[in-house]
Amino acid sequence: MLSIRNRLNKPVEHLSHLSDTELYVAWHLSCKPLYIRMPGVSMPKRTSDPWKHKKKLDTIETYADYFQDKVPNCSIQRDSLMAEMKVVNRPRINYLYELSSTTKNKEIHIVPTSGQSVYYPIELLHYAPVNQSDLQLFYKLPSILVRITHLHYTEQLRRLFASSINSYSVGN
After folding, report:
1. For residue 152, how far is the Cα from the chain centroid?
2. DSSP-derived 3-state class of residue 131
3. Of the candidates 117, 102, 122, 116, which has an alpha carbon nearest to the alpha carbon of residue 16?
4. Beta-bridge partner residues of 62
5. What is the pLDDT along the chain (172 residues), one digit of tens a residue?
6. CA–CA distance, 164 with 172 (Å, rounded to integer)
7. CB-based burial label for 99 (10 Å; 0-12, 13-18, 19+)
8. DSSP string covering 145-171
9. For 10-14, which contacts have Cβ atoms below 8 Å and span 24 or more sequence positions?
C-alpha cells in the first residue's frame, strides 16, 4: 500500500522512463483510463509535428499547441518525442469454471484495446497507482474470495452433518 501511495500523482519525467510493465494515466483527463506504452509500432511523433485534425482555433498548428490549448497550466516542451499509448482492456477472469483445453495454458494478460493508439506529451503522463502485475492480482482477488467463501460454507455444512448424524463410528 505504501508503494501505491508513493506512486499516486507521480509524473513521468522522461520518455526513457516509460516501461512495458507499468500503467499510466493522463492526469489532465477527468475520466482517467489506464494506458500501456506501445512499442514503436508506428512512426514516432514529435510535439512540433503539424496538427492535422480539426482545428477549432487558428492558433493550433502543432501537437504542442493543441495540448497547450487543452491544458493551459502545463508547459509542453517543443520538438520532443511523444509517447504512443493505448487504453488497457480490463481482463475477464473467472476461476470458478473450468477452462477449455485451448485456453487452459494461456495466461491472462492485460491487453491494449483494439482501438487506435494515442500520442501524449510526456508532461501529461503520470504513473498509475498500480503496475500491470498488481492490477492482474486485483482482478483475480474477487474470484479467489468467492472460492474461499464457498469452501468455508462447505466446511460448515460438513460439520453440521457430522454433528447431527453422529454415525461416523466404524463397525465392530
Report:
1. 32
2. coil
3. 122
4. 50
5. 576 677 777 888 888 888 888 888 888 887 888 888 887 667 788 888 888 877 666 778 888 888 888 887 888 888 888 888 888 876 655 555 555 555 544 444 555 556 678 888 888 898 888 888 888 887 778 878 888 999 999 999 988 888 877 655 555 4
6. 22
7. exposed
8. HHHHHHHHHHHHHHHHHHHHH---PPP
9. 10/126, 10/127, 11/123, 11/125, 11/126, 11/127, 12/83, 12/122, 12/125, 12/126, 12/127, 13/122, 14/122
Pairing mode, if any, of strands 35-37 and 118-120? unpaired
Residues 6+ apart with CB under 8 A from 89: 110, 111, 112, 113
Could you list the beta-strand ranges (E) of the chain. 24-26, 35-37, 83-87, 118-120, 125-127
How many whole angstroms separate alpha carbon 13 and alpha carbon 26?
A: 13
Give the start-to-end residue ranges of the domains of the chain. Answer: 2-45+81-165
Cell 460439520, located at residue: 159
Q: Provide the β-strand partners of residue 26.
A: 125
- Backbone phi, then psi, for 126, in 5-degree steps? -125, 155
